[in-house]
Amino acid sequence: METKQADSQKKLLDGVRPSRIVYPIIIGFAAVVYLLIKEVDGNTLSLIDFSWYSLFWICIALVMMLIRDLGYMARLRILTDQTFSWRQAFRIIMLWEFTSAITPSAIGGTSVAILYLNKEGLKVGRSSAVVMSTSFLDELYFILMFPLLILFLDIHQLFMITSPEHSLWLDSLLYFALGGYLVKMVYFIVLTYGLFWNPRGLKWLLLWIFKLPVLRKWKHGANKAGSDIIESSKELRRKPFLFWMKAFMATFWSWTARYWVVNVILLAFMFQGYSITEHIMIFARQLVMWIMMLVSPTPGGSGFSEWVFTKYLGEFLPSAGVAASMALLWRLISYYPYLFIGVYILPRWIKKHFRN
User: Membrane-crossing residues (predicted)?
Assistant: First the structure.
């Protein structure tokens, strides 16, 4: 049994080996170089005025990322009843983000997160409960924020329906976003129902789905996931409302800080006098971008994210060349640091927890 578990853990770690950072870096930089060569001309550099003012706001963008990570660390400590120290929480979050950065966005880092939590001292059942709780809170943030933003913003402008230079993908963007939101809503409802009301019913549904010929080879994994859900439910249903409120507030600040990074980067160069409504619009479009990034097959959305940035937020920048430059700066601040931090931490973490 122990040998089988060790083999399973080894397979998980093989998927997040440090050498895999090469792929997202190559893909991301190749996309940016292509966009820069295609879009940058002699006037592009003259449109970017770098000053001490710019440096100040870039530092604020870095502070936003710090707030994001502190929020995730605080949430992890809340969900584990302060079991982890701040240092442990930092290590786990950095490993989690590293895993997300080197795997396709639809997969993310949650599949390995249970292992990280378990090796840091939590039992497997409780580790599953914590990981599923983070998923529940993340989806709750999106499900609440997206309709609120649509309610207060011009939906035509949000989805660029009236754009004079619209293309096919922009025309269908509204339906794509609504479809993605519907998928998230269904997932959230099923997860909530399974975690808080009927975990055995959710396990039965999983096993029924994985009887299909296409999915049958993953039936064992589905059975284990169902068992984890049952264990998680026992842990979570005992938690008071205040516990969930504190965890959600930490989630709220993490995601909000993450999205404000782009707003702050644009402030650094003040390409135009952005109004409060425009800042909210930029923020809202990032939620839509997140739906699109979820279907990206590349590690961490590399390449695809940069392209979407130039197309969807380019309206707020003076030229396509400037948009490509800002996309690179955005990824340098919000994505690439996790690759290099993970490469530093992961080998030491493996050496500590897998001595043989």
Answer: 21-38, 50-71, 92-117, 140-161, 173-196, 257-275, 287-308, 328-346
Specify the pLDDT at position 23.
64
**Cα–Cα distance between 297 and 189 in angstroms, integer?**
26
Sequential DSSP letters for 96-122: HHHHHHTSBTTT-SHHHHHHHHHHTT-
Q: What mean pLDDT do residues 103-113 have?
A: 65
Structural domain total, the chain: 1
* C-alpha–C-alpha distance, residues 163 and 183, integer Å: 27
Give yes or no for residue 86 having a pLDDT over 80: yes
User: 9 lies in a domain?
Assistant: no
Query: What residues contact residue 306 under an 8 Å CB cut-off, 6+ apart?
Result: 28, 31, 32, 35, 324, 327, 328, 331
Report pTM.
0.83
Q: How confident is the model at residue 58 (pLDDT cuts 50, 70, 90)?
A: very high
Among 167-176, 194-203, 284-293, the range scoring the smallest mean pLDDT is 167-176
Q: For 16-35, what is the HEC assignment?
A: CCHHHHHHHHHHHHHHHHHH
Structural domain contains residue 231: yes
Half-sphere exposure of 266 toward its Cβ, with a 13 Å CA cutoff? 25
Tokens coding 127: 């580790």
Query: Which tops the pLDDT comparison, 11 or 282?
Result: 282
Enclosing domain of residue 272 = 17-353
Q: What is the pLDDT of residue 62?
A: 95
Query: Taking CA 342 as the corner, what is the angle to CA 337 and CA 343, rounded to the nearest 5 degrees?
Result: 105
| Count of beta carbons in the 10 Å neighbourhood of residue 175 | 10
pLDDT band at 1; cut points 50, 70, 90: very low
Integer angstrom CA distances of residue 32 from 258, 310, 318 = 21, 10, 18
Say which range, 24-38, 133-147, 166-180, has the weakest mean pLDDT: 166-180
Q: Is the dihedral of CA 11, 110, 293, 23 positive or negative?
A: negative
Q: What's the one-letter identity of residue 260? A: W
Alpha-carbon Rg of the chain, whole angstroms? 21
Alpha carbons 277 and 309: distance in angstroms, whole number? 19
Tokens, residue 54? 């710019």
Matching residue, tokens 């800080």? 257
Residue 3 lies in a domain: no
Residue 277 lies in a domain: yes
